[in-house]
Write a structure and sequence with these properties.
The chain is α/β, with parallel strands linked by helices. The protein folds into two domains: about 80 residues, no CATH class; about 220 residues, Rossmann fold (3-Layer(aba) Sandwich), CATH 3.40.50.1820. It is built from 14 helices and eight strands. The chain has an eight-stranded mixed sheet, sandwiched between helices. Helix 6 links the parallel strand 5 and strand 6. The N and C termini lie far apart (about 65 Å).
Length: about 400
Amino acid sequence: MAVVYTLLVLFLAAFVAGFILLVLGAINFDISNSEIPPGVNQPVKLRIIHVILISRAVVGKILENIGICSQVSFVRYVQGRKTRGVDPKLFITDLFFEKVPVRIYQPKAPAANQRRGVLFFHGGGWVFGSLETHDKLCCYMATESESVVVSVGYRLAPEHKYPAAYEDCLDATLHFLKNTEHYGVDPASVIVCGDSAGGNLAAAVSQTLAGRSDLPRLRAQILIYPGLQALDFNLPSYQQNRGVPLLFRERAAFYILQYLDGNALNLEEVLEGSHISMDMKLNYRKWVSPDNIPEKFKIRGYKPHVLLDCTTDVYETMRRFCEPNLCPLLAEDAVVQQLPETFILTCEYDVLRDDGLLYKKRLEDNSVRVTWYHLEDGFHGIINPFNSDWLSFSSGKRGLDNIM
């Protein structure tokens, strides 16, 4: 019996040691393929967050390989361990708008007039993120701006493919616009807001509602480092920041493929640009082109990319990338002209930087008022840990304060 016990202990020790070595090896590989530019402020903090995220993903992949759970489920589980915020200044309530889960943050202090309302759509590549992951951010937005904030828990990919997330955000917004009086909100002061994939959803919802005469007009849209197109993953920012945490170029393409198709079978075609026909590329080149990016953003090692055509079968799979509800940058001028005042935040060291810059130009060309704030030392996701005790970034706080 003692021998069996000893062998069991040795086996478990060997398993744990092997597991740790495997995780460390994967982390080391991912770090060796990443780059933190010298212009990033507080680079050590960024590296720590990156290692934490890699570790979580690697452990999830190992658990998936041995049949315990999927990597996506594990990462979501860890994200969901965050407890709901408690703020003495807010009433925080979980409800459903139609069938969409929402969390409402209402200031307790009485207001002399009706408040502003903010529909918030979280980021996470349409695959991750939840009411919990952005809870503290929404608390902060509600208290600092004295607004009623509605965080929307839309359905996630790959289980729920496009347009599920968009439809949930639209349905929640429609419900809120029709019931603002229940929350003490001025119907003429409703804003849609989102970060990353949430910025994509906010832009799509704003475009859909732009021409509606039967509803109150949106007061504004706030787009925080949004992803707005999937035609060209070789724009300057995608090249320059391809390996900069917290969003690699390959992962940006991977996430939108998960949202579109529930898989990433055409990842290589998307990255090289052979997923859209030449005719479509030329048609949208007036809007999606490095020629529309200011020269100062091309200094850091940009090389023009040769346009490639695609095969018929790939195009048939990928052609929905040309739908504005998926890629808002491709909306027609007639729609863009009706959009509300817009705030766009971009970060220099972010693959999605140029999506924001291109949309800024489109809006301005169509006489839409735009406030643009650019974090010269910022990276993708910099706002999320803004109120962490030891992993917050001063630049993220500065960006958030400009939004408020």
